[in-house]
Amino acid sequence: MKQPSCFREFARYASLNVLGMIGLSCYILADTYFISVGMGADGLAALNLAIPVYSFINGSGLMVGMGGGTKYSIRRNQGEPEEADRAFSSSVLLAAGFAAVFVAAGLLLPGTLARLLGADGTVFEMTRTYLQVLLLFSPMFLFNNLFLSFVRNDGAPQLAMAAMVLGSLSNVVLDYVFIFPLGLGIFGAALATGVAPVISMGILSSYRLQRRNRFHLRLSRPRARLLGSICSAGVPSLITELSSGVVMIAFNAILLVICGSVGVAAYGVIANLSLVVIAIFTGISQGIQPLLSRHYGSGHRRELGAILRYALVTAVVIAAAVYAMTFLWAGPVTTLFNSEGNAQLQQIAEMGLRLYFIGCPFAGVNIILSVYFASIEQPVPGQIIALLRGFAIILPMAFALAAAFGLDGVWCAFPVTEAIVTVAGAVLYRRARHLPPPLPESLS
């Protein structure tokens, strides 16, 4: 393949998936805006406390979808269609298992989860309601992520993008309708979020109805090794999502001590805006995953390096532009979500945006590298990067910097962590890039 066509492939897949992910991130951003207008700071705090559970549900779907899609693409390009179908069937089984656990939690444990996340007083009932609706709709989130990944890996990125964008736009419209004209409050916001993946899957169903799909269910005994391999390949995507929830829990606990619920509400603005930025990087990484897996399965090593370079340069350029806009317009952006005109919230969030978003370029590099390794069946380096940025460094860094520098230290924990992980990722890449690809499973 010639280099120009390789770039066109990258531009097509990455741009379509970035557009889709930006739309998908509007799930929470729309909730943030409408809840801030309709329910004030208490509503924002409740939403922020519930987001970690959403991150875990969405991350589980991404893990199964990205891991299964990677296996499917590699096996199909190695000329093993039966193994490719088995990867899809195993992914469906995994998604069903996760869905059963989440639904059970939604029926039995929403109040317990709300208390564990720190909800109390007037915020408790709002948090419990939002959590219960999310958990009961979890099968929709899981299977939507699964089908999006397989449709993308099957060569239809336009349809995947259309499903993501239209599903997200429906969420924005339903948010407004449920919260204001119908007066459903926090329940309406959660319901709108849950209905959106149903609409997305309805759009994706056209792919199967037109018989364009090359992946099929095969009824056979589950293979523990394959199930584990799918999860292993998708773990970086899970950790990327899950870590945002865990970090929110830790940051919320620190901020409650430093400046109370106003600090949590201010962090809600910062965290939800950062979800949109992270979604751009996730969109690039998910967009290049089918290309990386395809070229890896076909033995095209040169194209692997070219696509990775395109992705890294694109992420850094976007991150620089985002930080410039954030630095200049932190005030107006915060005001948009500060419907009550709380001066303390405004001051905290403005400074937080300017410090927190310094980490964006490093975060983009780290997310892309972790998915790169998973896409070429070298999951361990990707898992190391994801674990370092998601848990191992940022959590102790947040507590240490908060103790040393107070509120500014909390905001600086993210950029400091991402910068350290970028250095570690560069070392892992230099060590791993010369390793030969493994043989197909049928030959090993």
Q: In words, what does this structure look like?
A:
The chain has one domain. 86% of the residues lie in helices and 0% in strands. It is built from 14 helices and no strands. The protein has helices at 3-77, 81-108, 110-116, 121-136, 138-153, 157-179, 185-209, 224-298, 301-337, 343-356, 360-375, 379-392, 394-405, 407-432. The protein is globular and about 60 Å long. Mean pLDDT is 86; it is low at 438-444.
Identify the quaternary structure here.
single chain
Taking all Cα atoms into account, the compactness measure Rg is 21 Å
Structural class: mainly alpha
**What distance separates the N and C termini?**
28 Å
Helix content: over 70%
Strand and helix order: HHHHHHHHHHHHHH
Query: If helices are DSSP runs of H or I spanning 4 or more residues, what is the number of helices?
Result: 14
How many domains would you count in the coordinates? 1
Provide the β-strand percentage band.
Answer: under 5%
Overall mean confidence score, pLDDT: 86
- How is the biggest beta sheet arranged? none
Note poorly predicted spans. Answer: 438-444
Beta-strand segment tally: 0
Inertia-based shape: globular
Give descriptors for this structure:
disordered C terminus, 444 residues, mainly alpha, 14 helices
